[in-house]
Specification:
This protein is an alpha+beta fold. The chain has ten helices and six strands.
Length: 315
């Protein structure tokens, strides 16, 4: 273990990452194909912001039974006869509330459901006494989520074009192409994991997907900058090939990339634990999950995929 850590920190080129590129290509290809297959055949678990539906909310402070997620879900299933899309606890203290998201419900379903929720929990209103009117409902249109998605796709397209231009001018075309392949890998894998696991896709998920692109690109640029530095004037030397020089650059930036990824993941874990576990904010869960998956995928593609692709393009 001590020897591995020593090789990591010294960056002497002891880890032959580029030389094992065939392994990385096979592994990443299988992962991408599984993710694409899941997105095509399984699809996504879209939230009601995309599909439309009904949202019911009432205070978590009650005079009867405690209004926890499982008991609220049980009341919904008993009255409606199906499972809700999501039941979440939001906020803390006196502002805590229970949020139910479901398929579109008509008046014939809403009236008995709200009555059953009041009879079971008796949520307390602002006057300190149970009141049926504190159980509110609203219809959610799926068009808003669609608009967010379209804007996100436009932003993604503009981002990729600008990144390509920047990398082509700052580095070279081969590096720009390798970085884009790694970037597209991160997007596909992050989306594929959501499809495979069945996480609910919300507008927060789409926005979170865009935030990981900059992090993924940062790691790749750090490695490529070192490759550019090491290979400057390489044609006049005979001691190392381009592949060996690129592998050395990768080793020299390896510990920095690993530390960056680790310290980027820790705040996201804290966001999930505090924001979701303590504060009960479901939106933070959507944002934290996509960022965690994206950071891990971005770190792996920057270290194991981008540089081997660059070497192949240059050779």
């Amino acid at each position: 273990m001590a020897g591995v850590l020593n090789r990591l920190y010294t960056g002497t080129g002891a880890f032959d990452i580029v030389g094992r590129k065939r392994i990385w290509y096979i592994a990443f290809s299988v992962l991408v194909l599984v993710c694409i297959g899941s997105m095509v055949f399984r699809g996504f678990n879209l939230g009601i912001d995309f599909t439309g539906g009904t949202q019911i909310q009432f205070p978590a402070k009650t005079a009867a039974a405690p209004a926890d997620v499982e008991s609220v879900r049980a009341v919904y299933e008993r009255v409606i006869g199906s499972e809700p899309e999501a039941v979440q606890a939001a906020g803390t203290g006196d502002s805590a509330s229970i949020l139910i998201r479901s398929e579109p419900l008509g008046p014939a379903q809403l009236v008995p459901l709200k009555q059953a929720l009041f009879d079971t929990f008796q949520p307390i209103g602002s006057n300190g006494t149970p009141a049926p009117e504190v159980i509110s409902d609203s219809a959610v249109s799926g068009s808003w989520g669609g608009q967010i998605t379209r804007q996100a796709l436009i932003a993604l397209g503009v981002f990729l074009v600008l990144v390509t231009i920047f990398l082509a001018f700052y580095f070279e075309r081969a590096m720009a192409l390798a970085a884009l392949v790694a970037l597209l890998h991160d997007v596909v894998v992050t989306a594929g994991v959501y499809s495979l696991v069945g996480f609910e896709v919300t507008p927060s998920t789409v926005i979170g997907l865009l935030t990981i692109l900059g992090f993924s690109l940062y790691d790749t640029v750090v490695v490529f900058d070192k490759v550019k530095e090491n290979t400057r004037g390489l044609l006049g030397l005979t001691r190392r090939t381009y592949a060996e020089t690129a592998n050395l650059a990768l080793n020299q930036t390896l510990i920095r990339s690993l530390n960056t990824s680790l310290f980027a993941v820790l705040p996201v874990v804290a966001l999930m634990v505090i924001g979701v576990g303590v504060l009960g904010v479901g939106t933070l869960a959507d944002l934290a999950l996509v960022q965690m998956v994206g950071i891990i995928a971005g770190a792996l593609s920057s270290l194991l995929l981008a540089t081997p692709i660059l070497v192949d393009l240059k050779m």
